Give the backbone structure.
Amino acid sequence: MSLENEIKQLIIDSLDLEDVSLDDIDAEAPLFGEGLGLDSIDALELGLAIKKQFDVKIEANSAVTKLHFFSVASLASFVKSQRV
Amino acid sequence: MTELLKSWLSQGPTAQQLISFNHHNIVTGAVFSNQVAHLHQQLNRSQEKRWLLSCDSSDMFAVGLCAGLLAGKQIILPANTQTGTLSELTHEFEGVISDLPLCEGKAFLRLDKDINLPTSQWPQSIQWGELVLFTSGSSGKPKRIAKSIRQLDAEVSILERTFAQHLPHCSVIATVSHQHIYGLLFKVLWPLAASRPFLSDLVEYPETLSYYANLFPNLCLVSSPAQLSRLPDALDNEPQLRAPSLVFSSGGPLNFEAAMAIKQCYGRLPTEVFGSTETGGIAYRQQHSPAEPWQTFAEMEIKQDAVDGALLLKSPYLENDHWLRCEDKVDIAADGKFSLQGRLDRIIKVEEKRLSLVQMESLLESHPYVTKAALLLLEQPRIQLGAAIELSQQGIEQLTADGKLALNNVLKRHLLTQFERVTLPRRWRYPEQLPLDFQGKRVHNTMLALFDIDKFKSK
C-alpha cells in the first residue's frame, strides 16, 4: 500500500469513520473543517495515531503542526521527512 | 480575600503586573492599561449599549472585556461564532468587539495587538456593565444568562479562597476557550484579579502543553475531560519530570480511569469542578476512589426536589437568593456531599459542548430532505451522537443518486450553521420509518439497535 493510502486507512480506522472509504478521501483536500470535515477531537486522536504508527515527533509549535496535518499529502511528506 | 475582582477592576493592574504571555510576547500591566483605556474611550463615545465580544487571543479578549465592563456596556458572549448562531442572536447586540469583522451592519471596534498607544491611566467607571452568555436551553432555544460584576466577583473571590494555597506564583494555561464561563473565570478573570499571568494562546496539542510544563516550574492547567482523557496516552503513561502544580477539569464528567492516568503522569489528581453556565461552579472533588462525591463550595446551600430528585441550589453566584432548580438528578449524603445521577432533560454534552437534542432535531427537520429526525447519545466507541432520519421523497432520491456519505455531509453542513463540528452526529441511519410504539414514543432499544456498531462491523 502506498504511504498515502496507509495514512488514509489509519485515518478511517483510528477515527472510526463510518461510510468513508479510501477513494472518498482526496489526498490534497483539507482534513479539518471543509474537506473531510474532521473536528478538534479528531485532531488529538489522529496526532496520537500518526505518532504511534510512524514513530514521528510532533512539534510543540502548533502553527507548524497544523501545516503537517493539513491534508493526507502533507502528512505523507511530513512522515517521509522524518524517516531520513 | 473579599471582592477580589471588583477591587482589581476599580484600580487596574500595577504597571509591573504580568498580564499574559506566549512564546514570543508578553503583555505588562502598563501596556494592558493603555489598550483598555483606548478601547474604553471609543466605547464611551458610542451610542451602542450591547456589544458582542469574540477573539481567539485571550489577552485581546481581556482588553475588550475590561473596557466594556468599565464603560458600563453589556458584553455578549456567544457560545460559538457559527453564522447561524450569530444571526439568531442578532437582536441581542448592536456592536461587535473582535479581531475580525464578524457581522455586517453592526458597529465594529477592532481588537488590534500591534498599535502603539499613548500612556494612559486605568479608566474610572461610573457604572459597571454586565456579561451576557448564551447556552442551550431544554426547549431548544438558546438560553440567555446575565452575570453582574457582583456575581462574577463572588465566584472569583471564592475560587481564590478555596484553591490559593495550592497555587503559589504560577502561570495559567488552558486547553479550553475563554468564550465559555469556565475558561472565562479560570483562565481570564481569576488570573487577572489574583495577578497570575495567563497564556494568551489556546493550548491545542499535548506537545504544546509539555513545552510550557517544561518551561515553567509552577503551572496551573485549566483543562477538560476531552483533553485530559487523551493526554496520558500522548505522554506514554509515564511519570513526567515537570508537571503542572494544579490541574483543573470541568465542562463534563472525567472518568475515574482518566483521573488515575493523569495522576500517574503528573503525580497528582486533577481537581474537578461541577457547574454550568447558569450556576457557575457548584462543587469540586478529586477522584481518590470511583464515585467520589462532590463537595460544594463555601456559602452554597443545596437540597433535593422531593418529587424527582433534582438538585436545588442557593448560591452567592446567582442573581438572587431563591432556590434554583437544576436539571441534574442528585443523591445528597448526610455530610452534605452529593453524587450525580444523570440529567432530567434532553440537554446533553458531547466533548463538553452542551447542546439541546430538541434544537438539533428541529434543525434537521427544517431540511427539505428530512421528514423526521431522532438523535441518540451513543457511548461506544466514544461518546457521540447517532442520527436516525426518516427521509422525504426528495431525500430518498438524493440518497439513491449520490449515496450515503454525500447525504451525511449535506445534513452535517446544514447543522454547522448552528452547531460546532465536534458535536455533530458521527453515525447516520436512514430507516424507512423511525421506530415508534403505539403511544408514539420512540422505543429506546429499537433505536439503539439501529446503531449496533459491532453487528454493523462484523457484516
Summary: The domain at 3-83 of chain A is CATH 1.10.1200.10 (Non-ribosomal Peptide Synthetase Peptidyl Carrier Protein; Chain A).
